[in-house]
Amino acid sequence: MKLAILGPGRIAQGVAPTLAAMPEIECYAVASRTPGKAEAFAQRFGFQKAYTSYEEMLSDPEVELVYITTPHSHHFEHMMLCLQYGKHVICEKPCTTTETQTRELFALAKEKKLFLMEAQKMLFLPAVLAAKEAIDKGALGKVRIAEFNHSFYGSYNNHNSRRDRKLLLTKREIDKLKKVNDDVGFTIIPLRLFISEKGYAKLVIGVGRGKKAYDKRQSIKEREDKRSIDRMFKR
Q1: What burial class does residue 25 get, using C-beta atoms within 10 Å of its C-beta: 0-12 exposed, 13-18 middle, 19+ buried?
Q2: Phi (first) and psi of residue 65, to 5 degrees
Q3: What does DSSP assign to residue 94?
Q4: Does this model's pTM top 0.85?
Q5: Secondary structure (H, E, C), 154-206
Q6: CA separation for the pair 215, 205 (Å, rounded)
Q7: Is residue 118 classed as helix, strand or coil in its secondary structure?
Q8: Which residues are 66's β-sheet partners?
Q9: Which of 44, 74, 126, 195 could disulfide-link to 70, CB 3.0 to 4.6 Å?
């Protein structure tokens, strides 16, 4: 299958070597609106064609599947564009940030008989698949509540800076954490579908400062604006 990448940013650069090693995939095209970026990406990772227009790339009849790695705010727009051009789509998480947009996208994909998927690795991890198998077989009895934890070391700021070593977060930093919420949070939300098609999923983002990542939720909640980064998702 001939694959095209829409938005050759950091995520695409990390995935490209794996795609190139897959015998089922032919790294065919890449598109970026930034002059020279698509050409550099194509040369580095062995893609055959480079475009400076998304529409021009999607007009190429050889393109079968498009992998979207643009910023979250553009996912809905770009997924709709690809589907309208009749292309199969895999999009980085989150595919959208609203249920309405997601339903609209999948309705269009179904209408056009196209494959559409959010790139959720969590659903394919061996441990997750083993847990799902145990639940499906009834080995755990009737599951009434489940808690999922997804943690990793990372920083949205320069953790070597003096400011980053402070304990309390500023209002501006809290706003940045909302972006983290929209990224990391959507990693675990789909896991609740393994338990039930209905119900709630509560998401709490814990943040650590400096080189040791500890949960500092209480510090965030104690800020003057009293806004919480807890979010409730209801299906």
Answers
A1: middle
A2: -130, 135
A3: P
A4: no
A5: CCCCCCCCCHHHCCCCCHHHHHHHHHHHHHHHHHHHHHHHHCCCCCEEEECCC
A6: 8
A7: strand
A8: 4, 89
A9: 74
Contact 78, 54 (CB under 8 A): yes
Write down the mean pLDDT value for the chain: 76
Residue 229 has pLDDT above 60, yes or no: no
Side-chain-side CA neighbours of 60 within 13 Å: the count stands at: 22
State the sign of the Cα–Cα–Cα–Cα dihedral 51, 54, 58, 63. positive
The count of residues in the chain is: 235
Is residue 42 helix, strand or coil?
Answer: helix
Assess contact for 104 and 174: CB atoms under 8 A: no
Q: Name the more confident of 84 and 126.
A: 84
| CB neighbours of residue 38 within 10 Å | 25
Ordered strands of the 49-51 beta sheet = 49-51, 26-31, 2-6, 65-68, 88-92, 116-119
- The answer to whether 157 touches 164, Cβ cutoff 8 Å, is yes
Spell out the domains of the chain, with CATH numbers in brackets. 2-119 (3.40.50.720), 125-234 (no CATH)
92 within 8 A of 69, measured Cβ to Cβ? yes
Beta bridge partners of 233: 201
**Integer Cα distance of 140 and 133 in angstroms:** 10
Q: Write down the H helix ranges in the chain.
A: 10-20, 37-45, 54-58, 75-84, 99-111, 126-136, 171-188, 217-221
